[in-house]
Amino acid sequence: MNLLLLMYFEFFKVGLFAVGGGLATLPFLYDLAHKYTWITASMISDMIAISESTPGPMGVNMATYVGFQNGGILGAVTTTLGLVTPSIIVIIIVANVLVKFKESKAVKNIFYTLRPAATGLIGAAGLSVIVLALFKTNISAFSFSGLDIKCLILFAVMIIFTKKTKFHPIVAIAISGIIGILFGF
Amino acid sequence: MNVCIELFVTFAKMGVVTFGGGYAMLPILQKTVVENKKWATEEDLLDYFAIGQCTPGIIAVNTATFIGYKQKGILGGIFATLGLVFPSLVIISIIAAFLKNFADLAVVQHAFAGIRVCVGVLILNAVIKLWKGAVKGKITAAIMFIVLILSAFTDISSVLIVVAAGVFGLFFSGKIQNLEANKK
To answer: With an 8 Å Cβ cutoff, are A114 and B169 in contact?
Structure first.
């Protein structure tokens, strides 16, 4: 029971301090691996690989994995709840404040530039996913010679498919996964 | 209570189909939350993402909490978040218990090489849609491109970028809005 409490508390801290996406949790997880025996560096690298090849937010997947290794289902539930508790508390406070001040000039002004900035951030994330998918490398190590023709064709096909049809995105994801298996991507 | 169950189920479905972190969730959110359920607008989603980026926690979780809270208060926020993490709990527990080498399987690697291409396309489409709501003229377009380049090619933290864009807006949005409104 002590270990569960400790894991809840430690993942609560990760959730509280990891600002940004799932990858932002990594430095905190490595700190934990340094401090405790119930989480190791090799566990973290396993988790990254598994998180990237399973659905769901990466940070949640990582918390679940560590929790499960140490306390089965109960452990997994404990670490995941620990991770999301700060989000729930903070966002509910922020949402409350936002609702109250939504019509204020200052809030409107902030969001007027925040929206294009957020679009830019999402664009950058999209760009890094596209480069990784088509060139199998990250943006900093990018070169045209690494272009994967099969992936490029699928990319073009999927652009047309998603433009011309009104299917839920999951249909395109499923088709792409199957094509990846059939054509050995 | 029905709304809470609907939130849980809807976000659980989204948790199943979100591959590759918070940003990859965006196309799914647009389709499900904006188009189908009409729980939020495109602009709302951008606001949630910007806020999620600079508040503690995982962006996908923050966004789920936000949408849930707006639908049904604190309980709604909790149910939406629990729904989102539920599939992860089940899937990761199964993999951790039975499939130690899951990520090394050839089938999994091939499938994910294909899925990654598709996620790239979906995020691209999502950005084009968001563009229309967020970019009102040349200055906001410039902000978008500067942030895109800074975020893609430098190590500057997204938190810093979001805060800087917000502070900039607090002082200059009045002027920018006038300029961009006059252009139209």
So the answer is: yes
